[in-house]
Amino acid sequence: MAEKIAVVTGSNKGIGYAIVKGLCERFDGKVYLTARDVSRGKEAVKKLNELGFQPLFHQLDITDQNSIDKFKEDVLKQHGGIDILVNNAAIAFKNDARDPFSKQAEETIAVNYFSLLRVCNSLFPLLRQNGRVVNISSSAGHLSRIPSEDLRKKLGDKSLTIDSLSRLMEKFVSDAKVGKHTEEGWGNSAYVVSKVGCSALSFIQQRLFDNEKPCRNISVNAVHPGYVDTDMTSHKGHLTIEEGAAAPLYLALEDHGLKEKYVWHDKRVVDWYGETPAIY
Ligand SMILES: NC(=O)c1ccc[n+]([C@@H]2O[C@H](COP(=O)([O-])OP(=O)(O)OC[C@H]3O[C@@H](n4cnc5c(N)ncnc54)[C@H](OP(=O)(O)O)[C@@H]3O)[C@@H](O)[C@H]2O)c1
Question: How buried is 166 (Cβ within 10 angstroms: 0-12 exposed, 13-18 middle, 19+ buried)?
Fold first, then answer.
């Protein structure tokens, strides 16, 4: 039988790095640490080597189709498939960022939604039987975080397609470009819209996998890793990166039978369509 393969995007630091570390400890197979920047990636691999772990490394910039294609080609050639895909890479503008909101909206949606989609479109054909996909969303990715009821209805519609979801994401960006995003009901956080997009996409992906023939029994779940001490939170998060990796590792490795779920850092399944959960 082919050796099992796990891939984590954006894993040179933060939660992604801790997910790679946890997979090296617990996964019976090879683990790819990937990074857009080769030297940052290799530095992270070196740190893990010093701890006694041997992850593989590959450059992977999720915004760059050539980089994704090269990764796909190499994985296919060397291993023939993927068993676990953790979509972790993302960006967040700081609260005090001076970039115009239109730019924040465009870049955030481009990375956190469209690049996530691009990676999935490219790598999903490589997923093997019983494969697992873990999409790192956020508490910000709960449906209730979108103020407009009409938009919530559209985003939470169980017959929503990836094309219509992508059009909604594009609409947010164009509304932001003309300064109408609040008026149009999106609220004022590009990160929220991108992570709601990530959650909604995960559920559509699961429904598509459920209907594929032959069925590979792939599971897709979205997860909020908690408020974690990383560069993204300017180290204000109260959880360690290992604690932030716990729920993603649970979804990637354990025998939980979960599909199409939105899971919290304490492994609770949270109703994505319901009220905003009390604890972030
Ligand atoms: N920290 C939290 O409290 C928290 C809460 C909820 C959800 N999350 C989510 O958890 C995930 C990890 O966040 P984190 O806190 O660990 O963030 P982080 O410390 O900022 O790390 C983000 C990682 O993504 C990588 N990345 C960014 N753009 C990329 C691209 N185009 N291609 C490939 N890699 C790219 C970064 O690489 P570089 O080093 O090259 O920039 C870095 O390795 C994200 O999806 C985030 O939205 C975090």
Answer: middle
Domain boundaries, the chain: 5-94+118-139+198-270
Which architecture does CATH list for 5-94+118-139+198-270?
Answer: 3-Layer(aba) Sandwich (3.40)
Q: What is the pLDDT along the chain (280 residues), one digit of tens a residue?
A: 789 999 999 999 999 999 999 999 999 999 999 999 999 999 999 999 999 999 999 999 999 999 999 999 999 999 999 999 999 999 999 999 999 999 999 999 999 999 999 999 999 999 999 999 999 999 999 999 999 999 999 999 999 999 999 999 999 999 999 999 999 999 999 999 999 999 999 999 999 999 999 999 999 999 999 999 999 999 999 999 999 999 999 999 999 999 999 999 999 999 999 998 876 5
Pair 34, 7: CB distance under 8 Å: yes
Backbone CA torsion sign across 61, 91, 159, 150: negative
- Per the listing, tokens 């999106």 go with 186
**CB of 37 shorter than 6 A to ligand 1:** yes
Which ligand 1 atom is the nearest neighbour of the CA of 231? 19
pTM of the model: 0.98
> What DSSP assignment string belongs to 8-54?
ESS-SSHHHHHHHHHHHHH-SSEEEEEESSHHHHHHHHHHHHHTT--
Tokens of 238: 């109260």
Give the Cα-Cα-Cα angle 235, 238, 242 (nearest 5 degrees). 90
Is 12's C-beta closer than 6 angstroms to any atom of ligand 1?
A: yes
